[in-house]
Amino acid sequence: MAARMQQGGRPGGGGARFAQFKLVLLGESAVGKSSLVLRFVKDQFDDYRESTIGAAFLTQTIALDEQTTVKFEIWDTAGQERYKSLAPMYYRNANCAVVVYDITQASSLDKAKSWVKELQRQANENIVICLAGNKLDLVTEQPDKRAVTTADAEAYAQEANLLFFETSAKTSENVKELFTAIARKLPIEQASQGRGARGAAGRPGGVDLGSRQEPGAQGGASGCNC
Amino acid sequence: MSDDQSAGADIQKSSDNVSATGGEETQPQAGSVNTPKHDGQDVGGLERSQELTPPPLPPRPRLEVNGRPPTTGAGSFRLSKRASRPQLLSQATTAVSLADVHTQSRADFSSNPSSPASRIVSRKHSLSHFGKFRGNSDSGGDDSASLRSYAPTLDARLDGESLLGDVPEQEATPAWRALSAQLEHDDPFDNVLPDLDLFSLQMQHEFDEVCAVDAEGTNEEQTLGTWKAKLKHFFILSASGKPIYSRHGDDQLISHYIGVAQTIVSFYQGADDPLRSFTAGGTRFVMLSKGPLNLVAVSRLGESEAQLRTQLESLYMQILSTLTLPSMEKMFSARPSTDLRRPLEGTDVLLDGLADGFTRGSPSTLLSALECLRLRKTHRQTINDTLLKVRAPNLLYGLIVAAGRLVSVVRPKKHSLHPGDLHLIFNMLFEAGSIKAGGGENWIPLCLPGFNNTGYLYMYVSFFSTSEGPTNGSDERPSSAGEDDELAVVLISPNKEGFYELRKMRDELVEQLQDNGCMNVIKTAVRKRHAACSDIIPGTALRHFLYKSRGNVQFTMPSFEPYYHGLAARRKLMNLYSSMHESIHLKTAHLKVQHCTAQDAAALAWETPLFELYCVAGPQATKASLAHGANRIVQWIRREEERVFIIGGAVF
User: Fold this and answer.
1) What ipTM was reported for this prediction?
2) Claim to verify: residue B261 and residue B380 sit in the same structural domain
3) In 3D, which of B453, B411, B450 has the Cα closest to residue B103?
4) CB-CB contact of B278 with B298 (8 Å)
5) What global pTM score does this model have?
6) Which domain holds residue B544?
7) Which residues of A fall within a CB distance of 8 Å from B440?
8) Is the pLDDT confidence value at B103 over 80?
9) Which of B341, B360, B379 lies at the terminal end of a domain, its last residue?
10) Which of A128-142, B187-201, B269-283, B612-626 has the lowest mean pLDDT?
11) Helix (H, G, I), strand (E, B) or coil at B488
12) Domain assignment of residue B286, yes or no
């Protein structure tokens, strides 16, 4: 699995836990996937952002508590239809997914629902999915712009067993919260233990045949973070 | 250091050869220099007083008669053969096959196998149709006015000439009138005041967005005015007339014009005599039909048909790069009325980037060549070796690109890189902001039509800034802070799943380049930017030059500063280069050396089988000083060849 942890490599001493997870963002074009990521990773926002070409790969680390650090490897995919056939490549080994829609565009929620369906059918069975209704700032200014009510989206999220947030990449409202909530739902303990058991094989001197073949774990092959 | 000396010795040897055969010959002799002063070749001389100047003469016959007495012409020709190193032609080129050179720079001619004579015939034929069409369209309101003056310029002999020379003063567009007015100053290149003249103003607003017409249409007239004021338009429409792309204006605004374009294009297609181009006043229209697409360029910048056609080809390649040819053809054969904007969604920035590059005027596009970062041979060799050492098994091409210039390239022996493909990649990296601004790594499926227009390749891109010290650690990708001091590692693989493999290669590459010091070398070279012309050749009269090595399909140039500051001044310089490029590359021209003087500049173009050189000096520069400068450049290149060009590259 893509999730893994390294022990003792971080400052903070013996009890520290570090786990790495693969996260994929999906959703219709122009709903704000890249803006959410940019806000999360760099705490920046561009009013005008060009469409993502292909997919972008970024990383961000968050501390859940004093002992626990979670690193996200984020695949920010392009929303255009023509890239759809590539999506499985990005969600195949993902531990978590953020499916984004635009709360001022009802059709974007339909698209989000179809992504959720696809993920639940094809991705990891334990994948943590979060539904994000973005562009909250637009309806704060002009409430009549809202096309998807919070209640409707929330009801759907509950029914499909998803985390749910309404976010604004522009004002950064709920962005950090969203990623933190995902991190809390991820099996950190399990990932740490699982990786810990395999850790010996991953270290120099050991021969690790399994993880090198797996694209999701490739980062581990190029060395740990120490 | 020792390497440099040996390189120096090498060059010494070759220059010995030259001097042994007679140093006299290294000058392009004044006698062999053509001086087409009054025949419309001097694009710089926009201002043309009607009383004083005779009507434009057909340029070519005059040049043939006057300019190339066989003896002197041969003199300068022989010089070039000896002065440079012919064997370079047979070496592996960096990236690009020789065949590409010709298909690119002569795209127009290769795609039109008919002789000039037959072109004239077909033009006359078209003209009669055109007359009919015009009759019909006269009732169509004020738009027909723009078609008014097609006839005088539909002479094939004037084909390659800049429109500017032909256009009587009254007919010129306001922009060009303003440009001409500006030329009444002694030396506009010296004292360009960017805000004061209309051309600069228009150039400045050329890339502004045309706002949408509001619901009531209250601002329609104003919007249309803004739209019409653009100096250059590109349209792409499907064979069935659906708009696919327009550089300026939204659908509502352009729909009439798309309709007109469609009518004109299909009218001639129906008659089995496709319309290639026509002019109206100072505006040139060029059409390109490619399978299910029609592409139209409308330019008031004085570009030639061949140049505009190359630009349209490039836009077409961008579309193929997004879709691949088979999938586009499939869409249209399944449904001829397909709206291609949907599958192309999000690529407007790439098309805009290309279009604006053409409007600004780019040496790279004009010469169909690439520019390299100037590096010592030993450093380049180390970088090449490093690239080969860390090469991932599934790598097809690897590039290191700094500030839009190529640092190094790694490629398989049997696959060269097409300059058109590289242009698309560079455009994606440096013109479209999304990759750079993303601040991460990117994994991009794209089709490189020059390599293979039927399938996708996958491109790994990682940017890093060159402004501050070494990048720390391989894990955190630094954000993109600077504008064009960016360094990018571009790795291309046919393997869709190859991201992590190429990422690993990138990490190893960066680590090794840092260890062996090359990363700092590259960063220093990037920060140095272009040298001024006077630094390259101290005391020269030259202000700027373009030198293209044909064998390497690369060019080099000095800084635009201090003489060509700002968009308008650069565009005017590029116009001068374009017109020289055009007259040298016309099939009927047979020019080897061309000297032209205008009120604002004196220029020299010099072509040999090994290189093309275009240099520009102030208007007072004499022919001799231009020729002297040109020779000094050639000498400088000979000395620096392996620094300014990538020769061979890393081949596996």
Assistant:
1) 0.81
2) no
3) B450
4) no
5) 0.73
6) 531-651
7) 41, 56-58, 74, 76
8) no
9) B360
10) B187-201
11) strand
12) yes
